[in-house]
Design a protein that fits this description.
Blueprint (H helix, E strand, L loop, with lengths): L8 H10 L14 H15 L4 E4 H6 L9 E6 L1 H4 L6 E5 L3 E6 L2 E7 L3 H9 L1 E5 L4 E5 L1 H18 L2 H18 L3 H8 L5 H27 L1
Parallel strand pairs: 2-5
Antiparallel strand pairs: 1-2, 3-4, 4-5, 6-7
Helix pairs in contact: 1-2, 5-6, 6-7, 6-8, 7-9
């Protein structure tokens, strides 16, 4: 990416917060302060030499266009998170923690989950963002995480989020044409046979949509 297209994390977060109608009418927030808070977060991570990986919507923006998000998603060890007392933890369970640094919302995927830890160790590379170079999940890592989350989203009946995740998966598959069989092998130890079978059906349907799309564009 050149400097014109390099993702500016702070501006993405600020714009998403500012233009979300659900935030209108709430107590005034200095949206410009989010720019400094985002920079502070990544400075803290670097200064304390914390191993982490950027995932979620911001990471996706490095690979595809059009994503919008109000928070930052990081894979991190619980022990490393405890080195960041500046972040106020709002909730936590075995796999996830939700925190806040000032007005900045941060979702943490904890490496106690073996799949999250594997993505951080094996599917992460340094990518250039406007703030600084940031360890970021690769396309393979993002696909693994999106596929892993889908069965739970279906069980929760979260139709809107299912649609977002499936669109992200479809866009990454279309743009990068990765061998999905190897990703299924990585997911197999972490999902039930039923969930794996459903994921394979979903991916097969997406592959059919991509094939139809490519066939249609060739005719034009």
């Amino acid at each position: 990416m050149d400097e014109r297209t390099t993702v500016h994390v702070g501006k993405v977060i600020r714009d998403a917060v500012t233009f979300n109608p659900q935030n209108w009418g709430k107590d005034a927030m200095n949206s410009d302060s989010l720019l400094q808070t985002v920079m502070r977060l990544f400075d803290l991570l670097r200064e304390r030499k914390i191993d982490y990986a950027l995932v979620g919507g911001i990471a996706l923006l490095h690979y595809i266009e059009g994503r919008n998000t109000e928070d930052i998603d990081l894979i991190i060890a619980l022990s490393a998170l405890q080195q960041l007392p500046e972040i106020k933890i709002k909730s936590q369970d075995a796999d996830f923690a939700h925190g806040q640094l000032g007005d900045l919302k941060i979702d943490f995927l904890l490496t106690q989950n073996e799949l999250f830890d594997k993505v951080r160790r094996k599917h992460t590379t340094s990518q250039h963002f406007r703030e600084q170079d940031i360890p970021t999940a690769t396309v393979e890592g993002l696909l693994v995480l999106k596929l892993y989350a889908l069965p739970s989203l279906y069980r929760l009946g979260n139709f809107a989020k299912v649609g977002i995740y499936e669109n992200d998966i479809a866009t990454l598959m279309h743009d990068y044409n990765l061998p999905m069989a190897s990703l299924f092998e990585e997911l197999k130890p972490h999902l039930s046979e039923t969930d794996m079978a459903e994921l394979q059906k979903i991916v097969a349907e997406i592959e059919q949509r991509i094939a139809r799309f490519r066939k249609g564009t060739r005719k034009e």
